[in-house]
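Following up on my earlier message about cytidine-5'-diphosphate. Here are the inputs again, as you asked, copied directly from the submission form:
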Amino acid sequence: MPFIIAIDGPAASGKGTIARALADHYGFHHLDTGLLYRATGAKGGDPIEAARNLTPDDLQRSDLRSADAGQAASRIAAIPEVRAALVDFQHRFAAQDPGAILDGRDIGTVICPDAPVKLYVVASNEVRAQRRADELGADPAEMLAQLHERDRRDRERDTAPLRPADDALIIDTSNISIDEAIAAAIAIVERARA
Ligand code: CDP
Ligand code: CDP
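Thanks, got it. Here's what our run produced:
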């Protein structure tokens, strides 16, 4: 049985950074599931059809990391049929040996509820807005407003809302370095594997 690590949390909390580091450390496959929603939104047209027809090429588009693509993703991510169309791909990805790490919003709650390791990564709103502003060369106040809007939409939707699974362990990256966050995650995985 492949080992699955589920990582969820709000925007710019540090999920992807931890997921990539764990994938390197353990030689596991890594899927940033946010890209599926970003690519679906970027395709335009009917989002349900876009999700059903998503191809690996769609995930290679260069404009997927923009703040606009993030906003568009969170709008189409509230549509149940869009989410349903993306489930099989995520399940197949999670079934790869020797293990897989998926990061997103609903991995521990909906996609991989039996994962032996579930992390929920958080950071203060101000820290997250500053990180996104640094990454995108944007205004921190504007990033803060956008993160608020996106987090609210992700938390309040009816289907697969953003929330920690009951058995998720929380990592707060507000006041720790990236190396410390990675070390905390590895310590949690080591305990689960022992
Ligand atoms: O995947 P997610 O949107 O949750 O966040 P990320 O892309 O991993 O991290 C967002 C930004 O915060 C990146 O520029 C990271 O380098 C930075 N970061 C940080 O400064 N401290 C951490 N403990 C984790 C991430
Ligand atoms: O990197 P960041 O955390 O800013 O965003 P992302 O992980 O790329 O996700 C973009 C949007 O896709 C989120 O705001 C969610 O609305 C949606 N999403 C989701 O609904 N479920 C997932 N498993 C991953 C992303």
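One observation from looking it over: Residues 11-12, 33-34, 37-38, 70, 73-74, 77, 104-106, 150, 154 surround cytidine-5'-diphosphate (ligand 2) (CB under 6 Å). Hope that helps, and feel free to reply on this thread.
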